[in-house]
Amino acid sequence: MTTTPPATRPATSPTDRPRTLADPDTPFAVVDVHRARRNIERLARHADRLGVALRPHVKTAKSLDLAALLHDGAPGPVTVSTLAEAEAFADGGYTDITYAVGIAPHKLPRVIALLRRGVTLRVLLDSAEQAACVAEAARAAGIAVPAQIEIDCDGHRGGLRPDAPGLVGIGRVLHEAGCLDGVLTHAGESYFAHGAGEQRLAARNERDAAVAAAGRLRAAGLPVHVVSVGSTPTAHAAEDLTGVTELRAGNYVFFDLVMAGLGVCAVDDLALSVVVTVIGHRPEYGWIVTDGGWMAMSRDRGTSAQPQDQGYGLVTDLTGRPVPGLVMTAASQEHGTLTARDGARLPELPVGTRLRVLPNHACATAAQHRGYHVVDSARDTGPAPTIEAVWPRVNGW
After folding, report:
1. More confident site: 14 or 230
2. Nearest partner of 296 among 312, 282, 280, 281, judged by Cα
3. Could you please report the per-residue DSSP string of 70-134?
């Protein structure tokens, strides 16, 4: 693991010629650092306008190098999805971490170990049983375990409804052990909210649910320090976060075709892609075959429920310019099938041609790769952009 600042670690030794996207063996993942910075700055400005702290979710990239872009190079508040991520980011100097998946009792010793290291690691729960386990572990260890109560704002997954009868009781159990930190919600259904109007409604509902839950706890005499909301669609759509203390999002650093299909971003904002090589043709079927299947792209077909189904991904040339009408429409483990749509002519792409594929779901595609080759589209528009750095992913599993 390394904490070298982004885009400074050389991709080659000084005596080698610069490596380009034409060099590494395919398939491999590419991050356009210019687009990533632009995406990061966009949401940071929005959070500033709304007057809330931003706690980015690092589960998508799982990269210390990319995380260094989030807070001007210094470790800042982050969200994680696994304790392995929490430990890796703690090793990288991050001390303000929210573990935003419901806590299981057997994981509490690892949580306490991080707390003893001086890391503020918040856990998440939505049941009296979990609250009792956290309280018991905190008392036995002689250390407070900051806990947030998950609030269900849209029926998406876990959490308590803001008016749930057991909410205050859970809060009291945590408070008596010195563990009550606040409430947290995630508008998971916003990933099906098409257009700015639906996303604004989802953001308003997300805020209202979290603020209402916090209000109930406070009315019962319980302290609520943190009111945390967020998803990539609602984070960008929110207009008023009165009563909220922090905003969370993660996918926004890379964005993907699902987010573009919802109108949260443009295809030109997508910072993650996968380089593949043409390995064959089946003209009788209208196919171009590549060496990048679902092991490179993931099986995620998130755009299939959207008005424009993008298959397994949109195809660009090595510079990132879309190849008109070319889509990855099928995948086996190591083979990708490209076809033309909307009346487009299938381009002539000889065996050996390299292409980039933009993913449906950045989190799922990134998880297929050990790291990223970094390019900068603001500086390099050559036919095969120069690889400026290689960013390893942390062990986040």
Report:
1. 230
2. 312
3. TTTTS---EEESSHHHHHHHHHTT--EEEEEEE--GGGHHHHHHHHHTT-EEEEEE-SHHHHHHH
| Nearest-angstrom CA–CA distance, 85 and 49 | 30
Instruction: Supply the DSSP symbol for 160.
Output: B
Host H or E run for residue 227: strand 226-229
Could you give the CA distance from residue 227 to residue 248 in angstroms, rounded to a whole number? 11
> CA–CA separation, 248 vs 203, rounded Å?
12
DSSP code of residue 191: G
pLDDT tens-place string over residues 279-302: 999 999 999 999 999 999 999 999
Write the DSSP symbol of residue 18. P
Within its chain, how far is the Cα of 144 from the centroid? Answer: 29
β-strands 336-340, 246-249 pairing: unpaired
Nearest to 360 by CA among 295, 278, 304: 304
Phi, psi of 190 (to 5 degrees): -65, -15
- Asked if 194 contacts 233 with a C-beta cutoff of 8 angstroms, the reply is no
Burial class (CB in 10 A: 0-12, 13-18, 19+), 54: buried
Answering whether pTM is above 0.85, one says yes
Nearest to 268 by CA among 15, 10, 36: 36
